[in-house]
Specification:
Chain A has 116 residues and is mainly α. Chain A has helices at 5-30, 42-64, 67-73, 76-89, 95-114. The mean pLDDT of chain A is 89. Chain B has 135 residues and is mainly alpha-helical. Classes of the chains: A mainly alpha (116), B mainly alpha (135).
Chain lengths: 116, 135
């Protein structure tokens, strides 16, 4: 089975949605320190909802492509998480993190090349 | 700092759950699903009904849920820089299982890509000393 470019784009789309899910889960989880009743919160619900939403493009993608190509592409969400962490939580972007993201991106490009 | 090996075993378990979930989701999606016609809302109902009877898909999501829960528990007590690279092993399991179940072909590019992602994730774990839950 060949992996169409459209499937790869769908997985990237799922990664974008999934990376936002992580942001909202983190925002919601931070409130848990104030009490376990915060488990039912808008942000946690939105995070879970976005996680479920991200599975829709992923499922459509794996219907037509190789799992050995598409599953590793989910790691694109790590790249986005680096930027969202800076933007929303002011976590520092260090040279170590940038290097690591660079290696992951090289890996993604290799897998894309291997899909042909 | 915890030196217990328990979080490590938990994350290894997570990689198995995650890989089995992926294989089941793929098997579920290989089943024929009714097409949705935007003009007829009843076709959406047909799709939801078909999905609710798609056992591999449902069990796959259940494994996904177990994986998430176990991962959160493991990350609570363990160190991210050690656990995150181990979690990346799931890419290897999925590649091996896909070769077995779906006849995916392995090649140098794919192998190198998976290896680079694991190295990258390991470096990222090392660079982020604070424990953060990533998806």
């Amino acid at each position: 089975m060949k992996t169409p470019i459209s499937s790869m784009l769908l997985v990237i789309c799922a990664s974008v949605i999934g990376s936002f899910a992580a942001v909202f889960l983190k925002m919601g989880a931070a409130k848990l320190h104030d009490g376990i009743h915060n488990l039912i919160s808008f942000k946690l619900a939105l995070g879970c909802g976005l996680f479920l939403a991200s599975s829709i493009p992923f499922l459509i993608a794996i219907k037509h492509g190789e799992l050995s190509v598409l599953y590793p592409m989910v790691s694109f969400s790590y790249v986005l998480t680096l930027f969202w962490s800076k933007l929303f939580f002011n976590e520092p972007i260090t040279s170590g993190k940038v290097g690591a993201i660079g290696v992951i991106l090289c890996g993604l490009v290799c897998i894309g090349l291997g899909a042909q | 700092m915890h030196h217990s090996k328990k979080p490590i075993y938990m994350v290894i378990c997570c990689t198995l759950f995650a890989s089995i979930a992926q294989i089941l989701l793929k098997i579920g999606m290989l089943n024929p699903l009714p097409a949705v016609d935007a003009a007829h809302l009843s076709t959406l109902g047909d799709l939801i009904f078909a999905l609710s009877r798609n056992l591999p898909l449902i069990v796959g999501f259940a494994f996904h849920g177990c994986n998430a829960l176990l991962l959160i528990l493991a990350l609570k007590d363990g160190e991210l820089s050690i656990l995150w690279p181990i979690y990346a092993l799931s890419y290897v399991w999925v590649a091996l299982l896909s070769m077995h179940f779906f006849g995916d072909r392995m090649n140098v590019w794919k192998g190198a890509g998976i290896a680079l992602i694991i190295v990258g994730v390991s470096l990222l774990g090392r660079a982020s000393k604070r424990v953060e839950v990533l998806p």
